[in-house]
Structures are given as C-alpha cells and as structure tokens.
UniProtKB/TrEMBL annotation:
InterPro entries, alphabetized: D-Glu_cyclase (IPR009906), Putative_hydro-lyase (IPR038021), UPF0317 (IPR016938)
Keyword Lyase attached: yes
Domain of life where this protein originates: Bacteria
Protein's name in the database: Putative hydro-lyase Rhow_003290
Organism: Rhodococcus wratislaviensis (Tsukamurella wratislaviensis)
Gene Ontology MF terms: lyase activity
Pfam families: D-Glu_cyclase (PF07286)
Family designation: Belongs to the D-glutamate cyclase family.
Keyword Glycoprotein on entry: no
Residues in coiled coil: none
Enzyme kind, highest EC tier: lyase
Length: 262
C-alpha cells in the first residue's frame, strides 16, 4: 500500500530526500515560494496575470508555516528539499528551512503537474520519468510571462514523452485540471519554445524516449523561481524543482466536471 501524505511528510522531516513524482497517488502536490511581505503583492499579481504556470491554491498569512491544504504540516520541514535565494541567486539547498523562516514571509502554494499524473497514469499513459526513477525534466522557455510590478521572467515548462497515439488522451485529462496547470502549452518540436536540447534540462533530469514518443510540454510551477532570478528578489524560499509538498487534498478536488451533453 502506498505511503500516505502524512507518512511521507514525516519521512521528509526525518531526512528522506527524493523527487515526489509518483508518490501518494491521488493526493495533490504543490510548489512553494515564500517571499517577504513587501514583495508579496507583486508576486500575487504575477501569479494572477500568469495563471497557466502559476495557479495559486493557497496563500499563507505573513509568518505562517501552515497551509489549509495539509493541516498539521509544517512547510519549513515537510518538503524533501528546499532552495534558499538571496538577491536572485541560489544561496543554498537544504532539507530544513525552519531556522531561516521569518515572521514577514508569505508562502504561496502553487498547483503542480504531478497532481494530474495520477489520473493520466490511471488511464494507461506511461510516465517515463516515473518508470525510470528520475526527476521530471524542466526547461526555461523563450516565452516571457506577463510582468507584474517588480516581478518578471520567462515561463518554465515540464516535459513528458508520451506515445503518439496517447497524446490526445493525456492532453484531454490534464485539460480538466486547470488548477494544476491544465492542458499542455506545446506538443512536439522543442525549438518552438526556445529549447535547444532536451538532453540538457535546466531543472530535473533528462528522460529516455521510447520509439513513437512525442514530447509534451506543460506550464510549470518552477516559473516563480525563474522570476526570482530575473527580478533579483532580495530573499525567497522555494521548493527544489521536483521536490514538492504532498498535501492531504485529493487530486479529484481539482478535476472540472464535464457537463452532460444529453
């Protein structure tokens, strides 16, 4: 039986470090970005103007280490790996940011495409990164997000190779879950997104294609980290790409009901 979200968060708190794709199937996962309160409005506006890569599921009060998505969780210890940013530069990767947390930090919990992977896999679509035990590959594109105040930056995408005959199925299933990025932003030639080499992702690991696979690209919640770098935020704490918060919220809560056409 798969580990529960509570069990996994406990394991992460105790030092287990692993990408979270494929873990706790049936429960939503989220990206994390926490910024000083005097930057929070600009970040909130950025997410609202760019809902495809930055769909917000919860925003904490200043200083809060909790989220309604996982009651009882501590967001400073219960993710497997964090990144700490200073003046737009990566300052550290660590498994615990409790000693770095500040009373003025506002946490944004952003929908993650790992959430729609469970229904996609349940429909019989293979997930190559899960099969290969690797992190999903992510790429910075040449598509600029709509800026907001002091915050700007390019869109980041995650990529999954999908058998050609199942591309439409994967697109349709993910499209019913806009709160976790929804349908793909591009299918096929990566050069159309400004991606030069699929073997060299900006985040995560390269993944092996099988014969007949087609690359599918979804907007990614690492986009705020690209904005942190581009906008040189003075301080931020984020998840490490692919190392998410596993929530107690069923992924079914984010599936849009299709109206009965009869």
């Amino acid at each position: 039986m798969p580990d529960s979200p509570t069990d996994l968060r406990s394991a992460f708190r105790s030092g287990r470090v692993t990408p979270t794709a494929g873990l706790a199937p049936g429960f939503a996962q989220t990206n994390l970005i926490a910024v000083p309160q005097d930057w929070a409005y600009d970040v909130l506006l950025f997410t609202q103007r760019n809902p495809k890569p930055c769909p917000v599921l919860d925003v904490g009060d200043a200083g809060s280490r909790t989220t309604m998505l996982a009651p009882g969780a501590d967001i400073t210890t219960d993710l497997p790996l964090y990144r700490v940013w200073k003046d737009g530069e990566l300052a550290d990767e660590t498994t615990d940011v409790s000693s770095l947390w500040r009373d003025d930090l506002v946490a944004f919990h952003i929908g993650c495409s790992f959430t729609f992977e469970h229904p996609v896999a349940a429909a019989g679509v293979p997930l190559r990164h899960v099969e290969q035990g690797s992190n999903v590959p992510m790429y910075v594109t040449d598509r600029e997000c709509r800026p907001a105040g002091r915050v700007s930056g390019p869109m980041v995408v995650s990529m999954r190779p999908v058998p050609e005959h199942q591309v439409a199925l994967a697109a349709a299933i993910s499209a019913r879950m806009p709160a976790v990025h929804g349908g793909p932003v591009h299918i096929g030639d990566p050069a159309e997104l400004g991606i030069a080499d699929l073997e060299a992702p900006d985040f995560g690991d390269p993944v092996n294609f099988q014969p007949g696979d087609v690359p599918m690209f979804w907007a990614c919640g690492v986009t705020p980290q690209a904005a942190v770098m581009a906008s040189r935020l003075p301080f931020a704490i984020t998840h490490a790409p692919g190392y998410m918060l596993i929530t107690d919220t069923p992924d079914s809560e984010y599936v849009l009901e299709v109206p009965d056409a009869r």
